[in-house]
Amino acid sequence: MSSIEGIIKKGDYFDSITLMIVSKKMREMRGVVDSAIVMGSAENISILQSAGLMVSSFQNCTDSDLLLVVHAENEGIANSTLLAADEMLLHLKKNKKAVSGGKEIIKSLEAAKARLPKANLTIISVAGKFAYAAGLEALYLNQNIMLFSDNMSIDEERSLKELAKKKNLLVMGPDCGTAIVSGAPLAFANSVREGKVGIVGASGTGMQEISTLIHNMGQGISHALGTGGRDIKEEIGGISFLHALSMLKEDEKTKVIVLVAKPPHQKVLEKIGEAAANIKKPIVAVFLGATRECVEKYKMIYAPTLEQGAFLAAKILDQKAKIESETYPAIEKPKGVPLKYLRALYSGGTFCYESLLMLKELGIENLYSNAHATSVKLLSNSNVSQEHTVIDLGEDEFTKGRPHPMIDYTLRNRRIMEEIRRDDTGVILLDLVIGYGANMNPREEFIPTIIQAKKEAPHIPIICFITGTDSDPQNRQLLIGSLKKCGALVVYTNAQALQLAVRMI
Predict the structure, then answer these.
(1) Which helix (H) or strand (E) holds 204?
(2) Strands, sheet with 283-287, edge to edge from the N-terminal-most edge strand
(3) Fewer Cβ atoms within 10 Å of its own Cβ: the N or the C terminal residue of the chain?
(4) H helices of 36-127, where?
């Protein structure tokens, strides 16, 4: 008889990558049906409940508790797997040098600066409650910052950025997942050629999509500078966005600039517009959901989608630039068949937001999401779809105490199979973001789920697009071939995926 067993490690903390590695090893053990290692946040408890991995002892846990749970063929296997996982975690904690390949571990920013005195950029990726202190230390060491950490208060963010402004330094973040500096990809970024297009973005996956599409159209990127999504809100005032824009203005390699974000607050947009008006280089603005009028008012080039933003930037440099496309016939539904629903499961938050805007424009009603957008209903439970559902699996509610879905496919793979088994699912839409920082083995950890889904429900179309390049470690072209071979419908951009999905429903 199968058994679900769990243990709580009070106040124990491991980084999300370590948890992903150990959790994967647990699932590979003989007799294990499913497993999870997460921090005890309310969001993670909800996910465990939805996945059927909840045990009664977890009811009173806290955010600082580490939860290990195993669903196995019997109680003996479950308990032995938990013991093995606990031993793996202890081993990793005691053998940090083994994890780092025997290299010396630098234990402070000051020591790192002493070792690399010419370095002028620090990447910070620590638990949110420690990020502000680390940021202050970096600024006092005269470092520009890429702040990967999230869950920082908006007051702390503003304080860091005001100090950085005084010191003429750039703070990218918090929650900045993407940057390319002089050809070097940082965090979630892709292998793109160096070129003449500079990007400023309050949107990580938006910058990835634009930079890879520009590469795939034959052009290249000078720099891609992220700001964090809150930078363009009134409370922050676009401090980092404006600084990054001024840096690209002065950069000799940059001939075209692309701006990508949700629409900035009106006061921030005015500041950006005034700055753009004083830049002689062409500026393409992809402010998703903004009107053409409010963009062109500031002499910027209007682009309604990520796809169009990349295309317009590439076309400025080469009039022959083209967007890749693929044609699939619409599926004819027999008359009288009830409407079935779109289920879009994104790892990229910008794709989720762009989708909600486009689906409304394409006439889709009764849209539900865990993301906020005009005329879109909030899901009562993000783990359960309602009618047409568009989900951002990279939202904090899914990533607290666990790796981002670009790194660990477990949560999304489970959700794909849940949707494929529902009677009301009409089409599934997926992004697959590859590149540095992302999961290195999608053929082993993502493709098998698509194969299983098509095996169980061959009549449900699965539409997928890949954000990446053929130069990325995972190789976009090989993945396209693998996805097509297992029955997925592969297109080249989110906009193309949405247009095809709408035709099918």
Answers:
(1) helix 204-216
(2) 184-187, 178-181, 221-226, 194-201, 256-261, 283-287, 301-302
(3) N
(4) 42-50, 75-94, 96-99, 109-115
Please report the pLDDT score of residue 103 as a whole number: 66
Q: CATH 3.40.50.261 occupies which residues in the chain?
A: 109-317, 341-504
Is 3-99 a domain of CATH 3.50.50.60?
no
Split at pLDDT 50, 70, 90, the class of 13 is: confident
Contact 390, 352 (CB under 8 A): yes
Task: List CB contacts of 265: < 8 A, sequence separation 6 or more.
Answer: 232, 233, 234
Residues 6+ apart with CB under 8 A from 482: 443, 447
**Window from 69-78, 93-102, 228-237 with minimum mean pLDDT:** 93-102
Q: Which region holds residue 474: left if phi is over 0, alpha if psi is between -120 and 50, else beta?
A: alpha
For 259, how many CA atoms within 13 A lie in the half-sphere containing its CB?
Answer: 32
Name the band, by pLDDT with cuts 50, 70 and 90, for residue 335: low
Q: Where in the chain is the domain with CATH 3.30.1360.30?
A: 3-99
DSSP 361-378: HTT--SEEESS--TT-EE
Cα(272)–Cα(240) distance, rounded to whole angstroms? 11
Average pLDDT over residues 187-203: 96
Contact 480, 464 (CB under 8 A): no
Assigned CATH class of 341-504: alpha beta
Distances (CA, A) of 449 to 58, 222, 481: 29, 37, 16
pLDDT at residue 467 greater than cutoff 70: yes
Residue 104 in this model has a pLDDT that exceeds 80: no
Q: What does the buried/exposed string (b/e) look like for 305-337 if buried means 16 or more CB atoms within 10 Å of the residue's CB?
A: bbbbbbbbbbbbbeeebebeeeeeeeeeeeeee
- d(C-alpha 313, C-alpha 214), whole Å: 8
What is the per-residue pLDDT for 141? 95
Name the DSSP class of 56. G
In this structure, are residues 240 and 228 in contact, taking their beta carbons and an 8 Å threshold? yes
**Does residue 331 carry a pLDDT above 80?**
no
State the chain's maximal CA–CA distance in angstroms: 72
Q: Are strands 425-433 and 341-346 parallel, antiparallel or unpaired?
A: parallel
482: DSSP letter? H
Q: How far apart are CA 344 and CA 465, in angstroms?
A: 12
Neighbours of 368 (CB within 10 A): 20
Q: Tokens for 332, please give them.
A: 């004819």
Count of residues making up the chain: 505
Just give the CATH number of 109-317.
3.40.50.261
Torsion sign over Cα 332, 337, 338, 341: negative
Residue that is written with structure tokens 């049906």 in the block: 33
